[in-house]
Design brief:
Length: about 140
Amino acid sequence: MATSVSAVKKAPSPALESANLFELSRGRSSITYTASDIGGEPQVNYDGRTFRGAEVRRQKTELGTLVTVTLEATPDLEMRLLTIVLPQVQVKNGTPEKVSAPVVFTRVELSIGGLPLHPGPVQTYDVKIYSGKASFIVS
């Protein structure tokens, strides 16, 4: 008696893409990060302010991608930074995924000579958790 083995067809696995658009909020505050806008440059929108290109600094780390913009720079006084710690998010078929990310608001003390002229920390941090969605868009 002969036994036939038929090939089992596997359903194609859905294509996964790394998210390149993050839409986050916390209360009335909102942050949108696009890895590549229509002009091919990164863009961050924070509470109505837009930062593009070289204004957006990115660094890949074990924590995720650190996306930093300078909110304010006052010579001889301080610099205020916003850093989003973005996890790598895989999305399928354009379906957004829920995501939460810490956002670090950093105050850097400055003086005319560079570092502050008094003892204490140079950087102070305020960390907030923002939530929203991550998706993949074709730019």
